[in-house]
Structure formats: structure tokens, C-alpha cells
Amino acid sequence: MGESAWLERETVVAENNSILKINNIEVRYHEVILVLKGVSIEVPHDGIVALLGANGAGKSTTLKAISGLLIHEEGEVTDGSIEFLGARIHKLPAEEIARRGIIQIIEGRRVFEHLTVEENLIVGGHLRPTGIRERLQMVYHYFPRLKERRNLMAGFISGGEQQMCVIGRAMMAQPKLMLLDEPSMGLAPLLIKEIFEIIQRLNREEKIPILLVEQNVKLALTVAPYAYVMENGRIVMDDTSEKLKENPDIRDFYLGLTDVGGRKSFRDVKHYKRRKRWLS
Ligand SMILES: Nc1ncnc2c1ncn2[C@@H]1O[C@H](COP(=O)(O)OP(=O)(O)OP(=O)(O)O)[C@@H](O)[C@H]1O
Ligand SMILES: [Mg+2]
Fold this sequence. Notes:
- The strands form 2 sheets. Strands 6-7-8-3-9-10 form a 6-stranded mixed beta sheet, sandwiched between helices. A 4-stranded antiparallel beta sheet has the order 2-1-4-5.
- It is of the alpha/beta class and 280 residues long.
- It is globular, with a radius of gyration of 19 Å.
- Helix 4 packs parallel to helix 7.
- It contains 12 helices and 10 strands.
- 42% of the residues lie in helices and 25% in strands.
- The protein has a domain of 34 residues.
- Strand 4 and strand 5 form a beta hairpin.
- Adenosine-5'-triphosphate binds next to strand 2 and helix 2.
């Protein structure tokens, strides 16, 4: 087989290997505020992909563009396309996108505070009414803490348990792709470790691909084998996590491994400010 034929074959395999393809999308809020300026991302069928970037970079907007939730904020995909399992979905209503298997876990772990933990989970299963009991057992298998707390009002459990509850609720919908927005936010390191181990198991054992938005870059690069870095509505870098961990910019500005404060150029100062914001 000649080299070009081989390359061609590899390309086809690579394409088939993606469950989600975001092709050069633009997103605007209120018809005029351009927030995503040509973003392309792929998620493989079996993988965890991380989307990294500073505050306001456009990470949550990207997830909402996929799940169809933009519409609630007067946002719209105005160019490009989003393909899920080979079908274009970026003009479909959020309900239909969820029915096709894309479940987003939004920022801020919003549980239904006045429902019990178990009721929260059951609500998550409403899209797939058969087999709810079995899925509940599956969720309790991964989150034994939720089983212990199942009869408590979700408003009264700890922040970490609420995060487990919203992930469990998403699992109840039998997702084919899970979009996770900053699951580590505001949680203690030990809890973060526990939650991320479970996320990795869900990916590995339940074969759920995950697109993970995280500001904790070190953690994200440990959990996800591949990552995209977003700045100001654009993807500025994407690579394997192995390579990104060695990248000097990532080491300086995102992992804080070198003496950034000693640098002088405008670009570096700009980065430095951003890094300070990240760490604050
Ligand atoms: N509903 C909205 N209307 C107008 N502008 C918005 C809206 N939501 C977000 N934006 C703007 O879009 C940009 C990207 O916001 P987004 O929430 O996607 O960033 P992010 O990367 O998730 O940030 P963070 O890390 O703070 O969560 C920001 O400049 C924000 O102010
Ligand atoms: Mg966000």
C-alpha cells in the first residue's frame, strides 16, 4: 500500500472515531455579541477530551452550543456546524439533543434542593422511563455516598455530594456523551480526587465519552488524554496531554511551574495577569 493510500485510510478511521465534531462554529449572543470565533473540536467515541481556558474564554458557551441550551440566553450558532453521531444537531431544540444522548452538567451543581437525592436522580431518568430502577442501582454503585444520603433533601448535602448528585442525575439519562462544566469548582482537593476517579471509571467502564471543561489544568491534563486550549473565543492549541504538559506556555501560564513574574514582554505580562486571575 502506497503512503498516500495509507494516509487516506487513517483519515477515514479518524473521522469515524469521533462521536462529536464541532466544525468551525461561530456563536453570538443577542445577535451581535460574537463570542465564539471559529471553534473546532472533536471528541472520540471512547475518550475524555478537556477544554481549558481562562475566565470568559468561551468554554461554557461551547458546551451550551452543543447541548442547545444557548437559546435560553439568546445565543445562537451563526456559522459552522455541530455533528453528533454523523447527524447535524446545531439547529435542533435542546430537548431533542438530550433525547439523542447528549447530557450537559452545567456549572454550579444545581440540584433540586427540595427533592431528596433519590428524587433528583429519578428526575434525571425521565427521558428514558424504562429501566430506571436498574440505573439507580448503577448510580449507587459508582456513588455509594449518594446511596447513604438517598433520603435526604439535596439542599442539605455537602457541595461534593451535590456534585455527585448532578453527575448521577446525568447518568440516569443514559448519556451517549457527557458534557461536564467545571466539576471541581469550589471543592476540597480530596473530594475532587474522588469525583474525578469516578468520572474516569464512568468513561472506562460505562464507555461514556466526556467533554470536560476545567480551569484546574493540572487535573484536567491528568484525567483527559487530549485537550484543547481556548482563549478569547478561539482554540489556540490542541494536543495530547503528554505534549501539552511539556509545552513551555502551558507550563508557564497554566501550570505555574516557572517564574513568570520575571518576564517582561507585553504578551507575557498579559499572560501573567491572566494567570493571576486564574490563581485567585
Ligand atoms: N448570555 C450572555 N449574553 C451575553 N454575553 C455572554 C452571555 N454568556 C456569556 N457571555 C460572554 O461570552 C464570553 C464567554 O463566556 P463563557 O461563559 O462561555 O466563558 P467561560 O470560558 O465558560 O468562562 P468561566 O471560566 O468564567 O466560566 C464572556 O465574555 C461572557 O461575558
Ligand atoms: Mg464557564
